[in-house]
Amino acid sequence: MKHAESLRPNSKSVVNLRRNRALLSGSAVALIAALATPAFAQSATPAPAPQQGAEQAAAISQADQTANDIVVTGSRIKASGFTAPTPTTMVDVAQIQNNAQPNIFTTIAQLPSLQGSSGSTTNTFSTSSGQQGLSSFSLRGLGTIRTLTLLDGQRVVGAYYTGVTDISLFPQLLVQRVDVVNGGASASYGSDAVGGVVNFITDTHFTGIKGNVQGGISTYGDDGQGLIQLAAGRSFLQDRLHVVVSGEFAKEGGVGPGDFGTSLASGRDWFTQTTMINRNVTNDGSPQYVMRDYAQPYNFTKYGLITAGPLQGIAFDKAGQPFQFQYGSNGTPSRAANGAVNGCFPGFCVGGDLSGNTDTGRTLQSAIQRVDGYGRIGYDFAENNEAYVTVNIGQVRTHNQPTNGANRTGLVLQCANPFVPASVQQACATAGVTQFQYGTANALLPNTRVDTDRRQYRFVGGLKGKFGLFGTDWSYDAYYEHGLNTTAVDVKNIVLSTHFNQAIQAISLNGAIVCADPVARANGCVPLNIIGGATPSAAALQYVQPAKGAFQRLRMTQNVASLSFSGTPIDLWAGPLAVAFGGEYRREAYSVRADPYGAGVSDLSPNTADYPADPTLLAAGNNWYAGNYKNGSGKYDVKEGFLELNLPLFKSDVVGRANLNGAARVTGYSTSGTNWTWKIGGTWETPITGLRLRAVTSKDVRAPNLSELFAAPVTTTLPNFLDPTRNVNVVAIQNAIGNPNLKPENARNTEIGAVYSNPPWLPGLSLSFDYYRIKVKDVISSLSAAQIVDLCFRNIQPQTCSAYNLNNQSGPNFINVQAFNLASIKTDGFDAEASYRWQRPLGLPGAFTIRALATHIFEFITDPGLPGVAPTDSAGVNTGSTPRWKWLAIQSYANDHFSFTLQERWFSDGNYGNQYVVCAAGNCPVSTTNAPTIDKNFMPGAFYFDIGGSYTFAKKLTAYFKVDNAFDHDPAPSPTYANPALYDIVGRLYRVGVRFEF
């Protein structure tokens, strides 16, 4: 796709023009006036009238383009006056600056149509995901894998083998605007654009020097932030050679873990250990599920608890002294072999001794440090024709603590273990037992920490410009991109499970305490005392938590070659026929290497100092408590061709003006064959001044990613698996692997809407409304081993039959646990936007602007495609990412000297799940799998109030401030601990900074 930056006048003057216009229009006119409307440029215009309408506002924001050039992210067509039918939200540089975030990702993710995006507050509870600190967008709640993110209209190498990109690695200071296409765009851009496209447009011809220095901190004294950005650009050789460079350094301290119990980091007091407890009773007239605050599991404590048998209820303090555990709920130990507690719910008591709670030890927000460098050299080898090279090198480092301790339950300790206190040994003798069941949070061990180092190397070389053909102007854009992303994940202080199990079984031998297993002793086992909280010896720690823990080394590569053309070859009755066509080749590949203790080797032959061979470990891997990464690799290539047409239908003063826009793309995947995508839509500028109608429908795809196709295998043994064909239990090997036979997901996306802007009766008003409906079929979803066998046995999904053999005469029985194209997703809703700008309010200089935009979801239904499993509707489920309502509102006043902005972010009340039936004890129907009963099903929404402002001391020096979540609104209690996908879990944040430009 060709962008007009290379064709514009002096960029420094343009930046000044845009800044002055932004001040006069309330700092962010182009953002809100164009939200939910096509971001398109018309011919260059003089200074705007009091209200230009949505399209004109977009044109103003792109005043650096030539009179006949246009860039519309939702389309490949470039033609004067063209209006794309797909709604596009445009966020300009003024809004980015006003929001004053250390990462531009946060500003874009606040838009209502973006739901379920990942960032530094998500994945923080994870040890094994490898996605900590990964900033990726999700449109319409369809997930980050169904949103395509572009940089200057070009693909970016994935930062993980799901293919998602990391926005933290983009050159953020040079971003002029961000276009968010709220609808399917696969016909224009290919795979992944099911929910839409987010396109970052950079200032490729910036001239001058500009910078930004910013700092921030939370009201709790943590999450300290620093941001330094600097960019420079200059033209040489009579303005034919253009050089732009930028660099930035950002650091966010994050919000670390608290201690055991209920005290979160830095004294945050909103945590109540809300738990959804399953009573496991469905037909006694009471709800099956109950919601309770301060629920404490009764199968472990901070420093250890005997959990079953005649000694049940004996707990230990830090010094290892026994005491009677306080269960809460007035519970008493049953002393039965199953470990039940009288008076408590299954697995939980309410209240009592909460010191063993480990959830408080989770990182609330990952610490993140990012460094980014960018350079571009462009040479105009002819008028309106440029050759260019860009280099983008960036690094993002994060770390998090997934939880406190390493909970272990169901352990069995011998009464004769020399670490067992004498009083407990005597109690064993009195009760006539030789062992007891035990659970501990392992508070004596250092907490696990996950460090992630993600690096991106991206190189692009290209040609773009114009040429004449048969009396008409044509644009072309050709480029080649090579991208490399490496991700190193290191897990420190992780328990080596096999060594832990050996170390806790101690005996006295020749007057010394040693490990009971002689093979383990011969291979370096050092006994570990898990009764109490005494600090283990260095040797015991090294044996249980080796200095070199679990690791993963991921390498992603992407190569793209693209060529496209756009022009208007024919003049028709209502205007020129616009055409865009082109082709693209893309190759994606990944390889991942992991440590031998997690990945497994046949004989653990890598006998190194870090990972010595040990016959007590599992040769197949999976030896760590968590973070058992695997080795793997895979690749695929894609060949694509597309054609797009814009046909003007009519143009007159009586009936208005209308166009029909259509596109088709044929794609050949090396893994799944040929696939077609298309779109058809149109717009009608009605005779009613300011009223435009639009509609579009499309077929879109998401091809299976490298992870789904070629996931590294994970092998486990299933000792008593039922073979339904022979009705016998067998030993089977479960292989969790990728599925190279997966087909692309297919989506149908339909949108219809209207835009009403700048009416004669109220200049300055802009309104828009768009209804959308999306249905995705053949959704790639995972199945369990039992489901795979059952679906084949009952002849419901024959495609699963090839995934297993439970009567294998030539080798072990196996089940390949894979993903299949079985599920579907259906969602619909609408976007609405309103804005009004008041020029010179009450005679004051400057402008006052009010604006609001909202997204409402009617339904978000996921059907797993499995027999007996009902579809679920997650619209309004606030434990997820798709609330019924989500909106953003802004009020701002700005003049030549200062600006002041108020911003409100809100989403509606919801629940824990739409499938639940709320009822009270004595009045409940029978609880079922598809309609379970519950005593409470309400999760409140949230309202966040932000304040910002700036003051210009000199023409090129502006100081600013921003306060996010000014009321310090706490997140709602959640059975999933906290939901950072919706709620602010950090609290009030203060930021100040200075921007300058020369």
How is this structure best described in words?
With 998 residues, the protein is mainly beta. The protein is built from 13 helices and 47 strands. It has a 22-stranded antiparallel beta barrel. Strands 1-4-5-2-3 form a five-stranded mixed beta sheet. Strands 32-33-37-36 form a four-stranded mixed beta sheet, covered by helices on one side. It starts with 10 loop residues before the first helix and ends with a strand. It comes from Sphingomonas glacialis. Residues 1-41 form the signal peptide. Residues 456-965 form the TonB-dependent receptor-like beta-barrel domain.
- Global morphology: globular
Q: Describe the oligomeric state of these chains in a short phrase.
A: single chain
Major β-sheet profile: 22 strands, antiparallel, barrel
Gyration radius (Cα, Å) is: 31 Å
Termini separation comes to 31 Å
SSE-based structural type: mainly beta
Rounded mean pLDDT is 89
The number of distinct helices, counting runs of at least 4 residues, comes to 13
Count of extended strands: 47
> Helix coverage percent of residues?
under 10%
Strand content: 35-45%
Which residues form runs of ≥5 with pLDDT under 50? 1-69
Summarize the structure.
InterPro entries: Beta-barrel_TonB (IPR000531), Beta-barrel_TonB_sf (IPR036942), DNA_methylase_N6_adenine_CS (IPR002052), Plug_dom (IPR012910), Plug_dom_sf (IPR037066), TonB-dep_rcpt-like (IPR039426). This protein has 998 residues and is mostly beta strands.
